[in-house]
Structure formats: structure tokens, C-alpha cells
Amino acid sequence: MLIVENLSVNYKAIKALVNLSCRVEQGEIVALIGANGAGKTTTLNSISGIVPASAGRVVFEGEEITKTLPHLIVKKGISQVPEGRRVFAKMSVLENLEMGAYIRSDTKGIAQEMERIFHLFPRLAERKKQLAKTLSGGEQQMLAMGRALMSQPRLLLLDEPSMGLAPMLVEKIFEIIQEINKTGTTIMLVEQNAHMALSIANRAYVLETGQVVLEGEAKELAENPEVRKAYLGE
Amino acid sequence: MLLQQLINGIALGSTYALIALGYTMVYGIITLINFAHGEIFMAGAFVGLFLVTVLKFNVFLAMAGAMIFCMIMGVVIELIAYRPLRKSSRLSALISAIGVSIFLSTLALMVFGADAKGFPDTAFPVQQVKILGAEISTLQLLIIGVSALLMLALEFIVQKTKIGKAMRATSEDYNTAALMGINVNRIISFTFALGSSLAAAGGVLVGLLFNAVSFNMGLMAGLKAFSAAVLGGIGSIPGAMLGGLLLGVAEVMGVAAGYSSYRDAIAFAILVLVLLVKPTGLLGQKIQKKV
Questions:
Q1: Which residues make Cβ contacts (< 8 Å) with residue A11, sequence separation at least 6?
Q2: CATH code reported for the domain at B2-277
Q3: Over the stretch A2-41, which tens digit does the pLDDT of each residue have?
Q4: Nearest to A74 among B168, B173, B180 (CB)
Q5: A223 Cα to chain B: minimum distance (Å)
Q6: Which residues of A touch B178 (CB under 8 A)?
Q7: What are the domain boundaries of chain B?
Q8: Would the CA dihedral through A103, A108, A109, A113 be positive or negative?
């Protein structure tokens, strides 16, 4: 579904990604794990078109999107939940969700989508009139996810959904990620919490200094002594 | 007497508010002080004057024509002078804005000459109306009415329409707005169009109020409106409205109190004071980011 080939990204003199390749198949959950600064977020932002690639290419459903503008990439069916949630703080929950549906104009479909999202995240329904900045961290994460789903993406990019959340909430969020995946949305997940990520992913890539150093089935990686030592705190 | 001055102040202040809105909206979305905004206001006044004197339009049609002209002008300025510098330092775009400002006022000087031109008396018949002991001219009522109407329309667009919401989203977070599928370039163009059209309406109203349209009218009006935007909190739309009104009232009150030679200084004294005491302005706020 998504093929990233030899992708390189430079921020001025800094090489953020060096010849990174990975792929995501239809229906999978694929995790990118690694330390801070390994290039996980850059990979997602480059797929989304926010960060330009200096070399390599990104192909989505057989079509090259390396140089496609971010708003057109959303139209092609890729949606991102950015790191730090990035909800529109001064807009209401409802308006945030409306922004997620920006590319759609089917009023009925949008309303149905919103119902689905309120079903998935009942807390958002309770707070739909509130400004996003008044939500707790966990609720903001739910809003960011709901917002990204409003465009009915076929591929959902999730950047650090567990960041700053209490362990119980992290479990809840990961349950919801699996639920979203079961309803047919393919997921690419970036996480520092390797333990959680590997527990729900089909496959995973381990990134270090902008390169893939390990890849494979999530279960195998979770058993891999190197991974256990470096990322699972053993 | 106080009521009289208050109304004079509100009429003047509404025009500042109309111009200040353009500064604040553009700043809100691309953090650029569009120093050419005053010249867009000037161009609006000239287009209005042209439509009234040459094409014999009535004031309202002339205002509408000026607004459409300046919409296009604002969009083109952004396209040529600011968009190519989007990824450069903020200073480059600012210098470019000053360049556009000088270019436009010089162009107006060459085309229209140095003398101020006035609207014909027939353009808008001015009468005095007595309300609660205050003498109010129909022109002041026109200015206040039109400004209020335009600001209500703006508020509706920004709060209720899809593109207005996208504007707010883009001004909060440019990259995340793009991740929603919002074409941020189009939103920026739209913002310039909105702000420029309000400035154009302001230009026609000010041209009528002082019965003078000149190549350099954008400079002082622009700087004062900028002060108004800062007073209200740059980036805040209600702030620009409030700041404009307060500045207009302060200026008129200052003149009434006998400081008429300091007329223009009042706005800038307020600007300095705001920057010293509360740089975020009356309604501006720093966003606290939750992590």
C-alpha cells in the first residue's frame, strides 16, 4: 500500500533521514520505533508532504506522492495524527472534527462519520462544545485521532499517541488503535513506547540516526535481545 | 458634548478598525506586518473616487467596486512580494512589504499627482441630525453603519463558514492545517482578499469623511491602524475592532481637550505604552501549549 524507497531528508546541514526504506501493506499495523531524534517523526512528515525529501521516493497505492503537496496527500487517503496532538486549541471539539473533514463536502457522510467517532470516543461527545484547549491530554489525543479519521483515511499515520499519557490511558488509546485497524484502516505507528507498539503491531522497523537498523515481525523483534536491551529496558 | 465627541471618535475609530483588521488577520496567519496595507487602503480610496467621479457610481456601488479591486490587489501583492519569501527570514518579507508600500505610494503620486482630491458634494448628501443633543452628520452615520455591517459580516465568515474556520485553523497551526487537507496557500490568499477589501471600504469612507484622497494618505492611516491592531492584540480580530474604536475615541478626545497639534502623536504614544506595559495587547494572548 505504501512504499518508502531510499528516502533522505536534510534539515539544512543535518541529515535527518538517510536512505530509509520501509513499506506498509493493506490492513497492517506497522510500527516505527527508536530513540528521540532517530527520524521517526521526520519519516511521517515526509510521507505527509510537510517535510520535503532530498532524495528517494514515496509511493502510495501505486502512485508516487514524493512531491505532492500536503493537502493533496490527505485527499489521496493518508491522514496524520501529529506528534503532541496539535489540536486547534482555540476551536471547539466540534470545529476540530469539522476541520478533519475539510476535504469532504458530503454533509450526510460527515455527520455519520462524526457519530462513529463519538461512539469510539464518548468523551468527545460530552465535550463537543468545549474549546480544545480545555481538554485533558488524553482527551486531546482522542480528539486528534478523531479529527484524523474524519477524512476517512485508508492509511492513518500516528505519531507518539502515548506521549505524556498515564499508563491506563495509554492502554485505552492502544485498544482504540486496534479497533480502528479492525474496521479497515491501515496504520503506521511511531512510538517511543516500544513495548506497547510491538504488542499491537504486525511488523516493525527500528530506526537509529535516520536509518533502519532492524526490521521484521513485531513478535520476533520483541524477542530480539538487542531490541530488548535498547528499547524495552532490559 | 461628551456624547458628541464620543460619536465623532467612534466614526473615526471605525475606519481605523476596518484597516486594523487587515493587519491583524494577515499577522495572525503568516506573522507578517503587511506594511503595504496602508497603500491598499489608499488605492481603495482612489478607485472609489474614480468610480464616483468618472463612472458616476453611487457611493455604495463605488465602495463595492473598490473592495473588489483591492481584493485582487491584495492577493496579487501576496503572490508576488510575499509568497516567494515564505520560507526566508521574517525580516525579508517585512522589507519586501516596505518596498511594496513605497512602490505603490510613488506610483499613486505619479499617476494622480501630489494634490489631494475630493469627492464631489453630490456623492453623499451630508445633513446634520440631532440625537440626544448631539449633532451627528449623516456621513458619520454612514461610516458607523457600514463599518458595523462589514465587521458583522467578517465575524460571520470567520466564525461560521468553512473557509473562515480553516482560516482560524491555519492561523493557529499552519502545518497541522495542511494535514487536514486545507490548502493553506488558498487560505492565505483569502485572508489577504478579506483584509484588503475592508481596507478599501475604509479608504472610501475616510475619503468621504475628510473629503481628501491623496497618494500619501495610506501612511498615517496605516500606521495608526497598525497601532490599533497592536493595542487590541495583534492577531486578534475582536482586538482590532476594539483597538480601532478606542484609538479613534482617544484621538478625538485628545483634540477636544485642546491637544489638537498632538493629534497624530496620540496613537503612537498609545502604541509605545502598550508595547511597554502589555505587549500582547488588550485581547491578545499567548497560547499555552499542553504537552
A1: none
A2: 1.10.3470
A3: 999 999 999 888 899 999 999 999 999 999 999 888 999 9
A4: B180
A5: 32
A6: 49-50, 69-71
A7: 2-277
A8: positive
